[in-house]
Write a structure and sequence with these properties.
By secondary structure, the protein is mainly beta. The chain is about 10% helix and about 65% strand. It is globular and about 55 Å long.
């Protein structure tokens, strides 16, 4: 009797999950992300973070998104870095189901707070990144408008775990290739989150090369699973975006003459 109850319970869960999936719409896209990251060390504690991400649909031919992010770094200790900053994002209509309901491009402004924790276990380098974002996402009240007339406020929490290892030797030093794998989950909370309490998840696998302490490059595969903040015909919409990604990472030490 007990086994029958357990089997019935498991069947109910599976059946519910299948029904939930059947109510979803999925929009599959192939995208390309081409990213610059630059850090300017001012002294042992403070630095400036800069980045620009050029995100394209159909790998490179069409616009997807542009993201500019600036921040101030504070090195609390060798394993903990804090960051406070601002981001500007321009998102364009792409895919079969655009993020904006009117199929228009829109602007987003963010402030953010970040904590990055690093550690090393044998040859593995580990990092945990925690980020809070305050978002003002542009919205149109009707289709006749050419610019957004509202910027509702929402909150989002992000957590990323990343592990990387050298493909030669025991540490990632100059002229050494390495492998990096990461996963990041995004969760909305507070007012105006609409459908996307679960906002998105990103899984990346990268092959990197460290030229020296000032420059390294990474390239690989990214899968982005993103839930739109609105429904279409009373159905939740998920984007499944498969991407080619390139990261160019610069570190400038302004304390050296």
């Amino acid at each position: 009797m007990k086994n029958k109850i357990i089997l019935l319970f498991l069947f109910s869960i599976i059946n519910y999950s299948l029904k939930a999936q059947n109510t979803r719409l999925t929009d599959n896209n192939t995208i390309g992300w081409y990213n610059y990251f630059g850090t300017f060390k001012l002294n042992d504690k403070f630095g400036i973070h800069s980045e620009y991400q050029l995100r394209r649909d159909n790998f490179i031919t069409d616009k997807q998104q542009g993201l500019l992010r600036l921040g101030i770094n504070y090195q609390l200790n060798p394993k903990i870095q804090l960051r406070l900053g601002y981001a500007w994002i321009e998102t364009y209509p792409y895919g079969d189901i655009p993020i904006n309901g009117f199929g228009k491009e829109f602007t987003e402004h963010r402030t953010f707070q970040m904590a990055n924790l690093t550690d090393k276990v044998s040859i593995l380098e580990l990092s945990h990144r925690f980020m809070l974002e305050q978002r003002w996402v542009g919205r149109y009240s009707n289709a006749n408008l050419s610019t957004e007339d509202d910027f509702p406020f929402s909150n989002r929490f992000r957590y990323m775990f990343r592990v990387q290892m050298p493909l030669k030797g025991k540490i990632i030093e100059n002229n050494i290739p390495y492998l990096a794998i990461y996963d990041e989950i995004f969760v909305g909370f507070g007012e105006n989150v609409n459908e996307n309490i679960f906002d998105q998840n990103r899984l990346g696998i990268l092959l990197g090369y460290k030229f020296n302490n000032s420059f390294r490059i990474e390239a690989g595969y990214l899968n982005q699973r993103l839930q739109l903040g609105r429904e279409v015909n009373n159905r939740n919409v998920f984007q499944n975006n498969n991407a080619f990604i390139i990261n160019s990472i610069f570190n400038f030490d302004l304390t050296k003459k």
